[in-house]
Amino acid sequence: MVNQNLTATEIGFTHEDFAALLDKYDYHFSPGDVVPGTVFSIEPRGALIDIGAKTAAYIPIQEMSINRVDAPEEVLQSNETREFFILTDENEDGQLTLSIRRIEYMRAWERVRQLQAEDATVRSGVFATNRGGALVRIEGLRGFIPGSHISTRKPKEELVGEELPLKFLEVDEERNRLVLSHRRALVERKMNRLEVGEVVIGTVRGIKPYGAFIDIGGVSGLLHISEISHEHIDTPHSVFNVNDEVKVMIIDLDAERGRISLSTKQLEPEPGDMIKNRDLVYDKAEEMAAKYREQMLAKQQGIALPTEDAENLIEEDIPSATEDAVVEEEITAVEEITAVEEIPAVEEIPAVEEIPAAIEE
């Protein structure tokens, strides 16, 4: 029978000794640590988690997922063990605040950086639009598509709910920015089916002082003013009208910048035919394009060309998609939406517009 009258001295183990023993085996937790924990109590707006601390840690419902959560049971189950991110230090009651959302964000940024490095095309549905463009979610992060990178004839407001192919323009975790391009994804897909020297039929969608934008199957190519005719042209308006159907030849495909450069000058049987006899140019387009491809092949192989042919292939006469600084700044999608340098957030348009954050605080 145990003698209940034994003193602490006789037992050799005091309350102070017991407290010291607890301190000896107590773990020290810091904000930013990722630790294992077990769910032992689910509450209406959160859950208590055993992570080995003196006091149970707490995870509020808004920190349970990168996505919207209406009830804790959607994410957690009693006695479930998983990783948690320590969000804040102990409060006055000695309780830590935890997060799953932060772990998911870290992994999401890692994933989108990998996708960008692979130059991958991703698909996502538009969930909102604003004056600057459209909003999508990529791996749970909020991504922004500037209006100048949306290639569709629909009004932006009608894009909500529609899934779009997208390429990455900017992935910046430090600045909390994730910017994507619909136009670049379409151009890349189209480029995979196009070749330099190929003749295509398109529609004039816009005219600028430096050239005409031609819709060729849903993507926009630039017919620079210097590539309309061998004869001097004061303005593209003197040759084309919006909605004109045209035959053009592809002279440059710049997949990195999503640019397609076009020419009718290289299709002229005689200099100035685009101005004097456009129908003849279109009738002879395939024949002239075949000659152009032969000349290009000969040039690549270092074969001397007849003088008359060589004159038509002077390198300076064929501008790349990025040769003109104005074109680089102004080139737009098919419907020529004006580029937006600073882009508004989705909730309210502030006085100083900026790209919406990828992580919604």
TrEMBL record:
Q: State the superkingdom.
A: Bacteria
Gene3D superfamilies membership: Nucleic acid-binding proteins
Q: Which GO terms describe its cellular component?
A: ribosome
Checking InterPro entries in the record gives:
NA-bd_OB-fold (IPR012340), Ribos_protein_bS1-like (IPR050437), Ribosomal_protein_S1-like (IPR035104), S1_domain (IPR003029)
For this UniProt record, give its keywords in alphabetical order, as a comma-separated list: Ribonucleoprotein, Ribosomal protein
Domain (S1 motif) ranges: 32-101, 119-183, 197-265
Family recorded in the similarity comment: Belongs to the bacterial ribosomal protein bS1 family.
Q: Per its record, how is this protein called by name?
A: 30S ribosomal protein S1
What is the species of this protein? Anabaena subtropica FACHB-260
